[in-house]
Amino acid sequence: MDKELEHRFVTELENNQNIVHKVCSLYTNDRDSHNDLFQEITIQLWKAYPKFRGDSKFSTWMYRVALNTAITLYRKSKKRIKTKDYDSLIFKIKADEYDDTQERQLKLMYDAVKQLGDIDKALVFLYLEDKDYSEISETLGITEVNARVKMNRVKNKLRTILNP
Amino acid sequence: MLDELELLKKDWQKKEEHLPKLSYDQIYKMIWKKSSSIVKWIFYISIIEFILPHLLYLVPSMRNNLDIYSNLGLTNVFLVISILQYVVIFYFIYQFYKRYQEISVLDSAKQLTSNILRTRKTVKHYVIFSLSMVLLTFLMLIIGIYFSDNVLETLGLAGKMDSVPIEKAKFIIMASFAIFGVLFTLALGGIYFLLYGLLTRKLRRNFRELQKLEV
């Protein structure tokens, strides 16, 4: 691991850190675990960096490693699960206090997305990031048809969470 | 709903300005931290599981058991079984290492999860094998006792069970070995599968989720 490689990696990650932060904000519920997950993703990215050939964009490559870390490699501790209940409680009260209907709707939507399972979250995340179905299916390792079917089910799930 | 998701998408893309911003130095420090990923956990726990059964032989009472084998006339059987056991163990370690090497964060989520679960499965098979060997060891001891003429001397019980007829004493010893053997195996198995279950719960749930639609 030479200095030049380190420098190139850190610079690229610094410029693209938003992707990692967005994954962290979806998969964690408090600042500590956000930082924790950010660190784990950084470690995994760095470990895999020598294999990054540059035939795809650094950011595209990051999506895969970041999501894989959040979905598969990252281990949540019990303490953080407690914080989650606490957070979503505050979240609900706040959402009810909103006057603006659209703002309130958005709050409810974010809350609903946070309640989804790990895989569904990844689908929504890639959708929100404007990725097409071929990229979604490749990242998750399912066929494109299945990715579409799954996305429709997620939409239905969100609808049920929003209108119980 | 579609419109609502579109709305969310627009808002999501505006959210960027509220995200935290880490400096070059902060990120640089992070790349030297130690990973605490589930793969690391599985790796270390698996190593312990490979070593643990062998540490049992270092316990003095276990070594005495080896003497019991020779006194019960089981030396050769024991030797053959030991050799077989080590061949199988090395096969498992090789398999484990090979599968562990295949784990890559650059695979798709499904492939990655599947590879981790496969690695874990190797260890699971190893543990089932080890537990069977424990049971087999007890079974051999019981058979040895059955055919032995000087059980009480061998087990150091001479003089302690004189009031009991020898056939009955043999039966009692065999039965206690059997019960102890089964309980011991169940306890080890219980601890292991609990650990295994807790460690891979999330992986198995996500893998099922990814598999659900595949035909």
From TrEMBL, chain A:
Q: Which GO MF terms are attached to this record?
A: DNA binding; sigma factor activity
Which residues belong to the signal peptide in this entry? none
Q: Which is a GO BP term held by this UniProt record?
A: DNA-templated transcription initiation
Gene3D superfamilies with a match to the protein in the record: 1.10.1740.10, Winged helix-like DNA-binding domain superfamily/Winged helix DNA-binding domain (1.10.10.10)
Q: Which InterPro entries match?
A: RNA_pol_sigma-70-like, RNA_pol_sigma-70_dom, RNA_pol_sigma70_r2, RNA_pol_sigma70_r4_t2, RNA_pol_sigma_r2, RNA_pol_sigma_r3/r4-like, WH-like_DNA-bd_sf
Q: Which residues form the RNA polymerase sigma-70 region domain?
A: 14-79
Keywords for the protein's UniProt record, in alphabetical order: Sigma factor, Transcription, Transcription regulation
Q: Where is the RNA polymerase sigma factor 70 region 4 type domain?
A: 109-158
- On whether Aminoacyl-tRNA synthetase is a keyword of this UniProt record, the answer is no
> What is the top-level taxon of the source organism?
Bacteria
Checking Pfam families in the record gives: Sigma70_r2, Sigma70_r4_2
Q: Which family does it belong to?
A: Belongs to the sigma-70 factor family. ECF subfamily.
PANTHER family in the record: RNA POLYMERASE ECF-TYPE SIGMA FACTO, RNA POLYMERASE ECF-TYPE SIGMA FACTOR
Protein name (database record): RNA polymerase sigma factor
To which species is this protein native? Flagellimonas nanhaiensis
UniProtKB/TrEMBL annotation, chain B:
- Lineage, top-rank taxon, reads Bacteria
Q: Which UniProt keywords apply?
A: Membrane, Transmembrane, Transmembrane helix
Q: Where are the transmembrane segments?
A: 38-57, 77-94, 126-147, 171-199
Q: Is Transmembrane helix among this UniProt entry's keywords?
A: yes
Provide the protein name: Uncharacterized protein
